[in-house]
Amino acid sequence: MAEKDTVRKEHVIGKSVKRVDAFEKVTGRAKYTEDLCDRNAYVAKVLHSTIAHGYVKSIDTSGAEKIPGVVKIVTCFDVPEYYFPTAGHPWSTEEEHQDVADRLLLERHVRYYGDDVAAVIAENEVAASQALRALKVEYEELPFVLDVHKAMEDDAPQIHEKYPNNVLKHTSIRNGDYENAIKEPGLTKVEGWYQTPTVQHCHIENPVCYAYMEQGRIVVVTSTQIPHICRRVVGQALGVPWGKVRIIKPYIGGGFGNKQDVLYEPLCAYLTTVVGGRTVKMDISREETFASTRVRHAIHFHIISYVRPDGTYAARKFESFSDQGGYASHGHSIAAKGMGCFPQLYPCPNIEADTYTVFTNKAASGAMRGYGIPQAMFAMESHTDDVARAIGVPPYEFRMKNVMPKGFKDGFSKNVNYYDTFRECMEKGRKEFDYDRRLEKYSHQTGDVRRGVGMSVFWYNTGVWPISLETSACRMVLNQDGSIQVQVGETEIGQGADTAFAQMAAETVGIPFEMVHVVSTQDTDVTPFGTGAYASRQTYMAGFSIRQTGELLKEKIIETAHELTRQMKENLDIVNGYIVRTTDGEVLMSLGELATEKLYSLTNNGHLTAESSYQIKNNAYSFGCTFVEVEVDIPGCRAEVTDILNVHDCGRLINPALAEAQVHGGMSMAIGYALSEKLLYDEKTGRPLNNNLLDYKLSTFMDHPDLHAAFVENYEPTSAYGTKALGEPPACSPAPAIRNAILQATGVALNEIPMRPHLLFDEFQKAGLLRSDHGGNEVKDYV
C-alpha cells in the first residue's frame, strides 16, 4: 500500500460470509473420527442385553475366545467398579451440584433392553461380530416397567435402589394462593392432558471413537460435543487422574444433544488399557445408536387453567411426568426446565407446578435439541389454543393479551425481557404469513380435504447459568503474515459456530475475516478450557472470551506499533489488517509487516499472543413464534404441512445466512416430531421395535414445504456482541402450531404427538368425521 493511503473500516458481524469449513466439507476433505483412525486398529463391539430388567448371572466366553482374530473379551464381571455420570454438564466441586453417578463401564444389573454387558476386541469386524454371537449370557430376569405412571406405583419394579417409586427427583413451584384463587366467581376452567413421544436424534454420523495409549496416557479421539467434560468423565470412569486422559475432537457429523453425553468413550478408553495401549475403535451401528445411546424424554403433562371473563389467567396448575429410562443421564434438568418456563411464558399470580422425573426400563433419556422445551411447548401451546377456544377469544389475541410483557424479570435466573419481543415477533409473523386472510379463508370449510392455520410461541434461555458454571476461554496467536489463529473450547458440530467465532474475532481485532484461522479440532492438551456445545450457549458464551482476548491481543499489537512507529498509542488503531493513525487516517504499516518485524527483531523480539478466560454470570431470553398452514385429508387421516414460518428474536445476527440455516434445520426436526417420529417398544419384552431409519419414519425434505425464517433483531444488552440463543429455539414451537392448525381445520384437538394417521383416525372417528363402522354406512357429513 502506498504511503499516505487510507483504509476504510469494514464490519464483518452481520454479514452472510461463507462458512470457514465450507470447502473442506463440500469436497469431502474434512477429516472425521473414522477418517483419522489407523486402519490396523482393533475393532471393539458391545454385547447388549436381550432382557429389559434383571441381573447377569454368568457369561460363557469360551466359544468366542476360540474364534480366529479375537484378541480379548471383557465382561461386566471384569471392569472396575467406579460409578460415573454421563451427562455433559459442567462439573462442580460442590457435591449437590454434580450429576448422578449411576453408570459402570459394563452392567451386571441390566436396566433396559440393549444395556451394555460385555465387549469384544478383535482384529477385524468379522471376528468381532462372530464373537458377539458366540457369547452365552445367563440372566436372572426381573419384572420391568415401560410406563412412567405405572413405574411410580408402590408395587412397580425397583430400577435403582436409592430412588423409591422410581422417582429420580420431584420439584415444584408455588406462587400466590392457587386454592383461593380458583374460587373467584365467573372463572372458566380448562383442563387437558398432553403427551410427547420418545424420539432419537438421528445425526448423520453415529457415535464413533477410538482410543490408544501414548507415554502412559490414554488418548481418545471421538465425535463428541463436550471434549473437556469427556476428559473428566473418562478419568472418573477409569479411576485415573484426569491429566492422564487426552480427548481429541475432529469434525463432527451432527450431535443434537446425543453427543452431549459421554457415551462409549470411557469403555473404549478402558479397552485400550487391556490390550497394551493398542488402538481400539468403537463404531456402533445405527440400530445401537437408537437402542443404546440416548433418546429425548417422553413427557406426560397435565395442565389446568382458570380464566376470567376478560381473558386473563386467575390461576393455573401444571404437572409433568418425564420418562427418564434406565439411567439418570441429564436426569431431572430437562423436566425442570420445562416446568420453569410455565410461570414465565404467560405470567399468572397464582400457580402450582410439579414435575417428576421417573426411571423406566427403556433407553436412558438425555439432552436433545430444545432440552425439554419442545415437549413443554407442545403441552403449553396446545393448551393455550384450548383455553382461547373455551372462552371464545381468537388464539392470536389471547396470546397478545397474556404473553410475557416487556420488563418481566425472572427471580431465579435474573433474566430480563428488555423488549416487547413476543408481540414484535407475533406481529411480524402475522403480517409476513398473511395470517388474518388465511384464518378467515379457512374458517368455514366442509368437505374431505381442508386447510387450517395455527400458531404458537416459545420461551427459551441461553446457556446454563445460574444452575451450572458458565465459562469460556480463548487463545489468539498473531502469525507472521498478520493473520491470527483462534482456539476456543466451544465446539463446531455442524452448526457453523467456527464461522461465527471467526467473524467476532475479526471484528474485535480489526482484520479481514479471511485473516482469521479457527482451529476447529478441540484437543484437551492444547485447547483452552470450554464446556462445549449445548444449551444454545456457543455464540453467546464464547463471545465474552473472544472479545476479551481479541482486545488483549489488539492492545499488544498497538503497543508494538507504538514502538515501531513512535506514534502515540492513543492515536493508533487496526483497520482491515493495517496499522492506521486515527488523527488523519494514514496507513503506517500492514499487520503482517508488524508481526514479521516483531517476531524476527534482533533487538526487541516477541511472539504476540493473548489468552484469557471469562466466567459468565448472565443469561438471556430468546423468544419467537411459529405460524403454519396444514392440509388435512380427513378420509385419508393425513395431515401435511403446506407452509411454515418461524420468527425469532435471537438478538443481533452474527451471520444471517447461518442463522436462517439453523432455523430451517430446527423446523425440519420439529415437523418430524409433530407428524411421524416415535421410538416404539414391545410391551412384552421391552425391545425397541423400530430402531432403524427404515421403520422409524424420520422426516425428510419430501415431508415438508419450503421453510421460511424471519428475525426481530433486538440487541441483547448482556451479550458481548448483542447475540443470544438460536441453536435450539427453532425446534421448540412448530409442533404445537401444527396441532393448532389441525384443530382450526377440523375442530379436533389432538393432545398427543406424533399426529400420525392412526391417531387421526381414532380422533376423527370419535368426533364423528368418519363412518363409525365398516358395514357400508354412508360417511357422515363433514362439518
TrEMBL record:
Residues 27-143 form the Aldehyde oxidase/xanthine dehydrogenase a/b hammerhead domain. Pfam families: Ald_Xan_dh_C, MoCoBD_1, MoCoBD_2. Keywords: Molybdenum, Oxidoreductase. It is an enzyme of class 1 (oxidoreductase). Its EC number is 1.17.1.4. One of its GO terms (molecular function) is iron ion binding. InterPro entries: Ald_Oxase/Xan_DH_a/b, Ald_Oxase/Xan_DH_a/b_sf, Ald_Oxase/xanthine_DH-like, AldOxase/xan_DH_MoCoBD1, AldOxase/xan_DH_MoCoBD2, AldOxase/xan_DH_Mopterin-bd_sf, XdhA_XDHase. Coiled coil: none annotated. Signal peptide: none annotated. This is Xanthine dehydrogenase molybdenum-binding subunit XdhA. The gene is xdhA.
